[in-house]
Amino acid sequence: MIKITLRSPIVAVLGHVDHGKTLLLDRIRGTSVAEREAGAITQHVGASFIPIEVIKKKCADLIKKYKFELTIPGLLFIDTPGHEAFTNLRKRGGSIADIAILVIDITQGIQPQTKEAIEILKINKVPFIVAANKIDLINGWLPKENKCFLDTSQEQRQHVIDLLEQKIYELIAQLSEEGFNAERFDRVKDFTKEVIIIPVSAKTGEGIQELLLFVSGLAQKFMKKKLEIDLEKPAKGNVLEVKEVQGLGMTIDAIIYEGCIKKGDEIALIGKNGIIKTKIRALLLPQPLEEIRETKKKFKTVEKVYAAAGLKIAAPGLENALAGSPLRVIRGNEQEVIKEIKAEVEDVIIEKESLGIIIKADALGSLEALVKLFEQLKVPVKKADVGVVTKKDVLEAASVKKENPLLGVIIAFNTQINDDAKEEAEKEEIPIFESKVIYKLEEDYLEWKKKKEEEEKEKKLEKYVFPAKLKVLPGFVFRASKPAIIGVEVISGVIKPKYPLMNEKGSPVGKILGIQSKNQAVGKAEKGEKVAISIDNGVVGRNIKEGGFLYTNVPYEQLYELIEFFEDQELIKEIRKIKERCKK
Prior knowledge:
Blueprint: E1 4-6, E2 10-15, H1 21-35, E3 43-44, E4 47-51, H2 52-58, H3 60-66, E5 74-78, H4 83-86, E6 90-91, E7 94-95, E8 99-105, H5 112-123, E9 128-133, H6 149-154, H7 158-177, E10 182-184, E11 195-199, H8 208-222, H9 224-227, E12 228-230, E13 236-245, E14 249-258, E15 260-262, E16 266-271, E17 274-279, E18 282-286, E19 299-302, E20 304-306, E21 309-314, E22 326-330, H10 334-345, E23 350-351, E24 357-361, H11 364-376, E25 381-386, H12 391-403, E26 410-413, H13 419-428, E27 432-435, H14 438-461, E28 468-479, E29 484-495, E30 500-503, E31 508-517, E32 520-521, E33 525-526, E34 530-535, E35 549-552, H15 556-561, H16 569-583
Parallel strand pairs: 2-5, 2-8, 8-9, 9-11, 10-11, 24-25, 24-26, 26-27
Antiparallel strand pairs: 1-12, 3-4, 4-5, 6-7, 13-14, 13-22, 14-21, 15-20, 16-17, 16-22, 18-19, 18-21, 23-25, 28-29, 28-35, 29-33, 29-34, 30-31, 30-35, 31-32, 31-34
């Protein structure tokens, strides 16, 4: 029997370190506890369920003002320890998180980790609301515990409001630079086109009511179809973490976003060596208001869990389970389930014959984020897999390097590198970029690539004689011949030792033996510089004239090749004409 109902929206909370993400979650949980008796809020795997009754009671005046009718069961807040954990909340085509709260310290604005969070939200196609936190730190702010922002702002002095407005507009400008139109929540004209900013204080509770209401209202209004589920269908979910728990053995923390999961169900997920199938021995929920990471407390064993929910699963054979893996309940549809799981990860775990970089990560979510990131950068990926960096990975990178040095690299996110892999990488000179921050890997690779490209360009250009036009300065003949030493001004281009010269008639003059500037030998001279040069076969009065011009004697075929590198196209034409005239 089909039993369609609305599930709770899954809300992820992200933000830069010290911007108040944890305190905000604590305040949201605390607010709910204050409204209901202890135990009314079920806190699962790094997840806090806030019942709709609590939200309705807390936000009654605002619901009336904005004419919201809330029909969702509540909100499931996901408390992830970092952005990389958020990336494990994944499914094909995006994230299992329906909406996100991006916490930004209003006194500091967008910081590096904020930018990383924004990029991850873009990659995973997750809409978000900005919680502009720490309004209580605005100079002169008078805190009003747990009040709505609109009410508390009316009780502030004008200069304080002016300071707040300034900070909000600075934040709007920063978000614009990141590609988003944003506005304070009460001034938004189109919720589908603007990111809303809600000023809050996790410390005092101000603005939390608006935050809860707008997250609930917007998720319900714009995601209603996505939130409709059949509670009797086999569960679909995602592995958030794999960990060993004393007395239970290896377990998985999971988020269920569709259907129902029961004790005794057979489940399938991705492991290091392929598909893992196992039977659930126990479904566990932490005690109310206890974090799953606090393993000293006892868990509550349950028979079944409905979406949307976080839970811990104990089952045999989970030692090789991968964080970020899709999780499916099998009920007579094993082949269909396995096909679906493989389809979800086929764009993530990559093994190609073509040239490309190698990516290794700690979890499927992180791997997927990295693959998408490098694809956006138009950097091909040869191999992407979960696990440690091995000698085999290095040998594959070395093979790529022979054909394309810029792709013969390994990207290692939050994972170990085997000792033999390190030795081989050193021997083969294979760069391994390591970091626990996804976008640090992007920056490091691009910086290295740019440096390598510049080195390659310099190396390639060494064979060229670059065009240059020199004026022989009258009165600056230091030696007439053997070698001729004269003062010149570089009118255009660049000269280096060993460059051959010709005069205005196209006759060879000789090679530059050396260049001196202010009595110091230099490696080159550029446009506008006045230097002394020595020329091996130059003779002043014969092939060199005071006040006349000299040119670098660029080989004819190089004049065409240099067009893409050299800015002064007119000089190239001038040298070409001299050489053509000389041929006649």
